[in-house]
Every structure is written in structure tokens, then in C-alpha cells.
Amino acid sequence: MIDAVREAAYRNGFQAVSVWPVGSLAHEQTLLQRWLDLGYSAGMTYLQRHAARGLDPRALFPWARAVVVLLVRWDSLHRCQEGPWADLVASYARGPDYHPVIMRKLGGIIRELRFDKAAAQVDATALPERALAHRAGLGWIGRNRFLIHPELGGDLCIAELVVDSTLQEAEPEPQIPLCGECTACIDACPTGALTREGVDARRCLSYHTTQNRGIIPLDLRESLTTLMGCDLCLQACPHGNAAVPVDAGASGFLGLLLAARTRDDFLACAGNSPVAYCKREAAVRSAAVVAATRRRDDLVQVLGEATAGDPSPLVRGHAAWALGRLGGSAARAVLARRHGTEPEPWVRSEIAAALEA
Ligand code: B12
Ligand code: SF4
Ligand code: SF4
């Protein structure tokens, strides 16, 4: 049976697969609890609920007897790195939304193998996917917290099929971490989010661009150069087989985003990009910050229009910050004009700070 699982996985586009006969995840539960106690989960309160219920897959699927864990490299999911946004997002977001794509692949395996009961899972689930892949012997957990496969590296997605058949009795040998004395990923993190205890989401750029739909903390804005996600702690890893940065040139995408005042404008510009997942306000907010950190002086005018005319205070405040960061007489003129007319106190404080910058 295990050979049939492996063949079906490869046929459906996965590059590595292994099975974990369901057992205890007590050690991982302790690690998760310590991470939560440190406050590292930021606003992701759902992780506290999952921890309270317990990480054992049987808490969700009482019939589970094994978890088939599968890996697929992001660059095999979207080979052409399409879109003028490709250099503005992390590698996982360079193609269409991966969730339905992977669910279809998992569905293909379920149909071929005719399990009595099987649940297909990818991301957004209550299963601890890195821990499961590690337990299944597919790789080791690095200090950057990635599951790193010895040949595929870490730039990959983890998916699972929870099944009611045993498939194999023995638990695979977990792989030993190869970090040694290296701390390259910790050193590469521009915000200090990566510590020896894991990722502090409160300081993580990936968190702020994908989960936080509010204000991006002032002290993190300087480090933000992507609209969605961050690959820096993976790119630093000698074992990472890392996500290669792409250069799409100074594309017009940022300017179009900054000019999108309504949901319809936003969908017309970003609708077929993964950025649409962020919702208009959060995406345009991030675009303003990125325009400044990438020194896009050609966007001063559109940033000025956003500062004065965007319906969202969140956007106006971040656009004002960006103008202050870019500087110059045109930026200062917009800020000075807007200072007297802006109704929202938080935006006014951003404008005042930008004028002093
Ligand atoms: C919440 C979440 C986030 C949060 C928090 C990140 C984090 N490190 O926890 C934020 C939004 C910041 C985030 C960012 C990213 N994420 Co994310 N995220 C998740 C999610 C939904 C849950 C992760 C979780 O439980 N965190 C809790 C903490 C405690 O987990 P942890 O530090 O990794 O520790 C656990 C295990 O690794 C293990 N463990 C850790 N150390 C050790 C040591 C030993 C010896 C052992 C035995 C076990 C062990 O036990 C712990 C408890 O499970 C998973 C999907 C899922 N359902 O699992 C995806 C997931 C982890 N993310 C993924 C990706 C791709 C990313 C990004 C690369 C996206 C991007 N480019 O921006 C970044 C990477 C940031 C980073 N360095 O981790 C992939 C990772 C693939 C891989 N190769 O590891 C996952 C698995 C989604 C998927 N299906 O592919 N993510
Ligand atoms: S994803 Fe980026 S911000 Fe988050 S820990 Fe890694 S390097 Fe730091
Ligand atoms: S960069 Fe170094 S410390 Fe970080 S995961 Fe890779 S080998 Fe480990």
C-alpha cells in the first residue's frame, strides 16, 4: 500500500511523501505552548484554541490511523512566476492561490487509492504541519523554523492526507537538524522577529503583510519591501535551496494599487494576483510602505493623491508616512496642505511626523 501511495503522490505532482502512524505529539505541544506563552502568536488567536484542544490529529479526526505527509515545491506549482507583482511577493505567492490547486491534487490521490475515510488538508488547518512532516521523516526543523528537506530544501508547501488505514507500523526516523553553530537566518531577519524560541509574529513581516489588516508598526516599516510574505530567513539558509528573488523591474503594479480607491478598482488591478487575498485597505497600506522603502520617487504623485483622497484612514496614514520617507518638495507640499484638513487624529499624527522627517 505504501508504494501505491508514493506512486499516486508523484503522479499527482508531489515531490516527496512519507507516512506518520498517528501517535503522541507531546514534545511539539510543549514547544507550541512555550511559543504562545511568549506572546509570539500576535493576533492569531486561533492557534491558542488549537493548542487547548491538543495537537493530536485524532482530536479532529477520531478515526485517524495515519497521516500521509506530502511536499511540493512552490516553483513547481507556478513555474512561470507570472505577473508584474512577482518581485513584490514571497515565492509562495508568485502564482494563483495554491490552496485549491493542492486540494485538487490531494483529491486525485484519494480517488486513485479509494481510502474508506480520508481528509485532505493544506495550510489553514488545525494540524501542526511542520511537526507532522518532521515526524514523517521528511526533513528537519531549522532555526528559521522551516521544515527543510535534504534535497528539496525549504521553499515548499506541506500537505496531508489523514487516513483511517495504518499504511505502515513503524514510525520513520526523524532527521537530525543540520544547523550546528549557524545563525545566518537569525542574523538575516531585518526586524529581529526570529529568535532562538522561534518566530515572534508580532515583529514578522510575513505576519504583518498577510494576517494583520491594521497599522504596520512604525519601527517595522523601514524593513518592509514586499506586499505579501517574506523569504529572507529562508534565502539566508545554506540548506534552504532558497526562494530565488525575481526582478520584474519597477513595474506599474504598485502605482495601480495605490490608485485603487474602491473594491472594484482594487479587483480590476489585483483580482487575478494573490495580493487580492489581503483585501484592498491592507494591500494599499502595504503598497504605500513598499513604494517608500523601494525608493519609488516616481510614485510621489499617486501617494499624494492617496494621502488626500483615499476613503480609508489606514491608507491615508501609511501614504503620509511614505511621503515623509521619500521626502522632496512635492511630497512636503501635499503633506503641508493635508495637515490642516485631515479629520482623523491618527492620520494627522502620521502627517505631522512625516513633515518632521
Ligand atoms: C501560523 C503560521 C504562520 C505565522 C507564524 C510562523 C511560525 N513560524 O509559526 C506567520 C504568519 C508568521 C507565518 C509565516 C510564514 N509561513 Co506560515 N504557517 C503558519 C501555520 C498556519 C501554523 C504554524 C504554527 O503552528 N506555528 C506555531 C509555532 C510554535 O510553530 P513552529 O515554531 O514551527 O514549531 C512547531 C514545529 O516546527 C515543531 N518544532 C519546532 N522546533 C522543533 C524542534 C524539534 C526537535 C521538534 C521535534 C519539533 C520542532 O513543533 C512546533 C509545534 O508544532 C502553518 C500551517 C500549519 N497548519 O501548520 C503555516 C506554515 C508553517 N507556513 C508556511 C510558510 C511557507 C510560511 C512563510 C514562508 C510564508 C512567507 N514566505 O512569508 C513564512 C515563514 C516564516 C517562518 N520563518 O516561519 C509553510 C511552511 C513550509 C515549510 N517548509 O516549513 C506552512 C507549513 C504552510 C504550508 N502548508 O506549507 N506562518
Ligand atoms: S519571515 Fe522575514 S520577518 Fe519573518 S522571521 Fe523570517 S526574515 Fe524575519
Ligand atoms: S540559516 Fe543556519 S541556523 Fe538557520 S536554518 Fe539554515 S542552517 Fe539552520
Please provide a written account of the structure.
The chain has 357 residues and is α+β, with helices and mostly antiparallel strands. It folds into 2 domains: 1-246, no CATH class; 250-357, no CATH class. Helices cover 42% and strands 10% of the residues. Strands 1-2-6-3 form a 4-stranded antiparallel β-sheet, sandwiched between helices. A two-stranded antiparallel ribbon has the order 4-5. A hairpin with a 5-residue loop joins strand 4 (140-141) and strand 5. The longest helix has 16 residues, at 98-113. The protein is elongated. The model has no long low-confidence stretch (mean pLDDT 93). One iron/sulfur cluster is lined by residues 142-144, 179, 182-185, 236-239.
Jot down its keywords:
357 residues, 2 domains, 8 strands, binds cobalamin, binds iron/sulfur cluster
Radius of gyration: 22 Å
In terms of structural class, how would the helical and strand content be classed?
A: alpha+beta
Strand content: 5-15%
| Total domain count | 2
Distance between the termini: 65 Å
> Could you list the spans in which at least 5 consecutive residues all have pLDDT below 50?
none
Q: What about the largest sheet?
A: 4 strands, antiparallel
Small molecules bound: cobalamin, iron/sulfur cluster
